[in-house]
Amino acid sequence: MSVSTNYQMISGLSEVIKNYDAVILDLWGVVHDGVTAYPNSIAAMQALKKAGVPVALLSNAPRRSSVVVGRMGDMGIARDLYGPAVATGEIAYTQLLARSDPWYAKLGRKVMRVGPVRDMSMFEGQDVEVVKTVEDADWLLVTGPNDDYDAVSVYEDLLHAAKARNLPMLCPNPDREVIRGGDRIICAGAIAGRYEELGGDVRWEGKPLASAYDFCLQMFDKGPDAKLLVVGDSLSTDVAGSNNAGLDIAFVTGGIHAEELDAPRGTLPDRRKLDDLLRVTGRQITYAVGDFCW
């Protein structure tokens, strides 16, 4: 696979931000680790605001955007540091409410939920009944593991039972794994990916689908000529998504890929290692930066 390795290694966004009108920022692995904000992230957001560069958030969070905004506040990230905040759960929520898309229109009312209680916001105002067994369900919503430290294998029997009934599955978080407070845990995408391997019907919402960026840009209200920079740390979602949407990306190497690049947050990896990883994954980046920092 031929992949361009013609990217620039930078020490912070201040080196290149003059080329852009706005920033689309990933959250988990870039701004915070699911528990606390990274040391440089709030200062970087403050610097972007001071420079007059608008920021939108686009996160593969399988919950309502309002929940994500609240969680940011809990971490000490002020609401005036960013504009639109789009959680991919909000994209799925909007589709569920409208039921105008043919896939959503076919879903029944009875849904079985796989995921933590913190994602219950997906059902606010929805005409659905949450059931507890595959036998009672018309479809499945997976927002993550029921327990943060579950392995995908915990759900094997459930997935086989669901496939036997050909139940459709909605997954509003394509991420396969994330680092939460220093621990690597699975995400909804790992469970949904296994269901797809079994032949199950999965509807994905979120990055890397270009539709996630379309939804974000509609809220951002930037003109068609605006020059946008994505900041993200996942090659399979952030980088692939920006590639699909035709947007430049600053790839935070100190996020989910820090271990395989052998470069802790705040340090840049050996260029040959990064080149090899890009070749293997077939991704294109515009910039490599060790951390989300100014």
TrEMBL record:
<protein>
    <submittedName>
        <fullName>Sugar phosphatase</fullName>
    </submittedName>
</protein>
<dbReference type="InterPro" id="IPR023214">
    <property type="entry name" value="HAD_sf"/>
</dbReference>
<dbReference type="InterPro" id="IPR036412">
    <property type="entry name" value="HAD-like_sf"/>
</dbReference>
<dbReference type="GO" id="GO:0016791">
    <property type="term" value="F:phosphatase activity"/>
</dbReference>
<dbReference type="Pfam" id="PF13242">
    <property type="entry name" value="Hydrolase_like"/>
</dbReference>
<dbReference type="InterPro" id="IPR006357">
    <property type="entry name" value="HAD-SF_hydro_IIA"/>
</dbReference>
<dbReference type="GO" id="GO:0005737">
    <property type="term" value="C:cytoplasm"/>
</dbReference>
<dbReference type="Pfam" id="PF13344">
    <property type="entry name" value="Hydrolase_6"/>
</dbReference>
<dbReference type="InterPro" id="IPR006356">
    <property type="entry name" value="HAD-SF_hydro_IIA_hyp3"/>
</dbReference>
